[in-house]
């Protein structure tokens, strides 16, 4: 994909189960290879359970793709969560202990608990973004913003009161701030350690924190 993309020709559409294969292919190249948690622990490739989890959000109608001339150039994967989400994530992390996805879920469980969006916003469900990726040759052109805006609009249409995102990357955190999201929690990666005090996930610079953001819909 070259830089010669007519921005007006980019269309955002809701992804369906039929898009699973091409969406996963896109995420492999333009999401997983750079997403700080995925990059920050071994092995480099995502677990099948991680991929299957992202794809399991498609039937909710809460995932979008940015398309240009029939190709995916960006994607947003979101899904519902309920007030027991942190407990559920801790259980899953324990069940999958020792695996890459289990390690990532352990961190996501801590930030879900600490952001505490259900109590702070007095809501009983939320739309949560699990992945956002933009074609690596097209970064910095606000395509990510368009994806987040489309996901929020979809959430509003479907009756979700709030929209949340764990920003593992400084770039996505900057984007949420610009879009008017509120910062709920910031956790330094150096705080996620095992019983011996060894840091479990080491994302590359400039990523130092995972920040959880919320937007009322
Ligand atoms: N290197 C340097 N800066 C980058 C960048 C990169 N690879 N990608 C985005 N940026 C900057 C933009 O310049 C912009 O900064 P600014 O606010 O100072 O202008 C900001 O990040 C957001 O840019 P925007 O154009 O709105 O977003 P985008 O379309 O480039 O997409 C991501 C942002 C995060 C979706 C994209 O960087 C991406 O796909 N990253 C890999 C996967 C990932 O980490 N996803 C997010 C996990 S929470
Ligand atoms: C893996 N599934 C919005 C966004 C990142 C969460 C981390 C998910 N958040 N990582 N491997 O992309």
Description:
The mean pLDDT is 97. This protein has a seven-stranded mixed beta sheet, sandwiched between helices. It has helices at residues 20-32, 36-39, 48-55, 85-95, 100-115, 117-121, 143-157, 170-178, and strands at residues 11-14, 63-68, 71-81, 126-134, 162-167, 182-188, 209-216. Helix 4 (85-95) runs antiparallel to helix 5. The chain is globular, with a radius of gyration of 16 Å. The protein has a single domain (2-216), classed as Aminopeptidase (3-Layer(aba) Sandwich), CATH 3.40.630.30. It has 217 residues and is an alpha+beta fold. It contains eight helices and seven strands. The relative contact order is 0.17. The site of coenzyme A has 21 residues, from helix 1, strand 4, helix 7 and helix 8.
Present the secondary structure layout.
Elements: E1 11-14, H1 20-32, H2 36-39, H3 48-55, E2 63-68, E3 71-81, H4 85-95, H5 100-115, H6 117-121, E4 126-134, H7 143-157, E5 162-167, H8 170-178, E6 182-188, E7 209-216
Parallel strand pairs: 4-5
Antiparallel strand pairs: 1-2, 2-3, 3-4, 5-7, 6-7
Helix pairs in contact: 4-5
The structure holds coenzyme A and N-(4-carbamimidamidobutyl)ethanamide.
The site of coenzyme A has 21 residues, from helix 1, strand 4, helix 7 and helix 8.
Number of domains: 1
Q: Please state roughly what percent of the residues sit in beta strands, choosing from under 5%, 5-15%, 15-25%, 25-35%, 35-45% or over 45%.
A: 15-25%
Number of strand segments: 7
Fraction of residues in H or I helices = 25-40%
Envelope shape? globular
Level-2 CATH architecture:
3-Layer(aba) Sandwich
Bound molecules: coenzyme A, N-(4-carbamimidamidobutyl)ethanamide
Largest sheet, strands/sense/barrel: 7 strands, mixed
What's the CATH topology name?
Aminopeptidase
Classify the secondary structure makeup into a structural class.
alpha+beta
Low-confidence stretches: none
Count of alpha/pi helices: 8
- According to CATH, the homologous superfamily is Gcn5-related N-acetyltransferase (GNAT)
Helix-strand topology string: EHHHEEHHHEHEHEE
Using only C-alpha atoms, the radius of gyration works out to: 16 Å
The rounded distance between the terminal residues' Cα atoms is 34 Å
CATH class category label:
Alpha Beta
């Amino acid at each position: 994909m070259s830089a010669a993309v007519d921005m007006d020709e980019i269309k955002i559409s809701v992804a369906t189960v039929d898009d699973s294969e091409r969406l996963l292919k896109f995420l492999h190249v333009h999401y997983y290879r750079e997403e700080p948690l995925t990059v920050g622990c071994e092995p480099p490739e995502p677990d099948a359970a991680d991929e299957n989890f992202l794809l399991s959000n498609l039937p909710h109608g809460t995932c979008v793709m940015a398309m240009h001339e029939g190709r995916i150039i960006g994607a947003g994967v979101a899904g519902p969560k309920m007030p027991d989400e942190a407990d559920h994530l801790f259980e899953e992390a324990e069940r999958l202990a020792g695996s890459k996805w289990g390690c990532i879920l352990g961190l996501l469980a801590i930030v879900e608990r600490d952001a505490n969006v259900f109590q702070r916003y007095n809501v009983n469900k939320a739309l949560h973004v699990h992945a956002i990726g933009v074609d690596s040759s097209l970064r910095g052109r606000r395509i990510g913003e368009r994806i987040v805006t489309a996901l929020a609009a979809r959430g509003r249409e479907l009756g979700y009161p709030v929209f949340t995102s764990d920003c593992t990357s400084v770039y996505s955190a900057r984007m949420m701030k610009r879009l008017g999201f509120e910062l709920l929690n910031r956790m330094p990666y150096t705080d996620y350690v095992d019983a011996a005090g060894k840091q479990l996930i080491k994302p590359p610079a400039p990523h130092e924190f995972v920040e959880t953001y919320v937007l009322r819909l």
